[in-house]
Amino acid sequence: MTSALHPARVVSGLGDAATDGHAPAAHALHVLDLDPRTYARALDCVHCGLCLPACPTYTETGLEADSPRGRIMLMKGMADGQIEASDSVLEHLDLCLDCRACETACPSGVVYHELIEETRARLNTARPKGFTDRVVEAMFLHVFTHPLRLKLALLPARLLQKFGLWRGITESRLSRSLPPQLDKMQTMLPNRGPMWEKPLDEFYPAQAPDGVRKARVAFLAGCVGSVLFQHVNRMTIRLLQHAGCDVIVPRSQVCCGAIHHHAGRVDDAMNFARLNIDALTPKDGPVDFVVNNISGCGAMLKDYAHLLRDDPAYGPRAAAFTQKTRDISQMLVELKPAMPQHALDRTVTYHDACHLAHGQKVTAAPRELLSWIKGLKVVPLRESDMCCGAAGTYNLTQPAMARDLAERKVHHIEATGTRVCVTGNVGCAMQIQSEADRLGVELHVAHPVALLHEAYFGEAG
Ligand code: SF4
Ligand code: SF4
User: Fold this and answer.
1) Ligand 2 binding residues, C-beta < 6 A
2) What are phi and psi of 49, to 5 degrees?
């Protein structure tokens, strides 16, 4: 049993990854310089192994070095100067999805993501990158995180879609000759959407049927969300209005910072956090809550307190911001609006997005929203809280593992017999939909907001 391993045996179970100290180190890092508070996270691990079955990469490879326990030992060993940052060690750390399933499973409360994220931040500065990796990283950091630039970048693809030429191009030899990361990007582009999405208004007044105004909320529209999923944003705002909220959507809001944070650019992420705290919790118009409908962004917003904990000016404001942040499912459940009246006679299944289920510990609220809908049947999904392989930019940087996990997810969905999968994260939606399309599985992936909107207003999103 792996769970009975003694720490010393765990290290030996790491095989080449841990004993690679005599191989030439690929990188200039000799001792991993972790913040003592982060290092203490590794000491919380008692090596019980209870997290192993929850870890997607361990489940796929069966290697200790691809498990949470193994990775903690690798990071601690690097911080202690006992393990070199060899290519082999880095590959096992790179393969981690940062899905945080291990945190949910861990009885000792190990806050794993702080360890892996700080480790990556330290390592990224010391590692050389290939040309394609630099291009993809630049696209993510400088295009995907700016809605206007993203709209401009997608304009040619939208034009080709409008004239029915997109499918031909994506299935052509030209497409297949693209680097795998770019080819994956084009397969994930939703095949519907307007040429040029209008920005949201800055203010939407409460419109509850009983006239009661319950809260003033700020809405984070998201970078990719506001370009590719603006229809979901509009439905989210309408549901908030109907539940009695005044909704502000400040134009000064920026990317949540998750992409920068996961790329190890902590200073950039901190700057985004400060700008969003100013924009979404304005001093001259206080809000009761900050609402989002993308779980990856939501987990980042809730991490602002940690990110800015040493900032004397923003630390206390970041703590208050985190307290006010809600996923749309949490917010609607708290607001307790009147129940929707339109019945939806269909069967769906629900996939727990990692950054909602594990990052924010929100699993009951989305299911409760679905239970409000008359006629809707929700069938259980096997391994519903196991990562689909999207994980931010993971499906581009680790395409093989991402595809294995996506295929596993689609097969489980197919086994439920449903044709609709509901999930609260655009990254998961694009990943699962593109994998289903690749496998020829008939499937529609929907945000819970879309079903709820249809149940309230009788209009499909
Ligand atoms: S974050 Fe996910 S992939 Fe990484 S060690 Fe934890 S469970 Fe495994
Ligand atoms: S991370 Fe938690 S569950 Fe996993 S081995 Fe350590 S103590 Fe056990």
Assistant:
1) 45-51, 68-69, 72, 102, 105-106, 108, 110
2) 85, 5
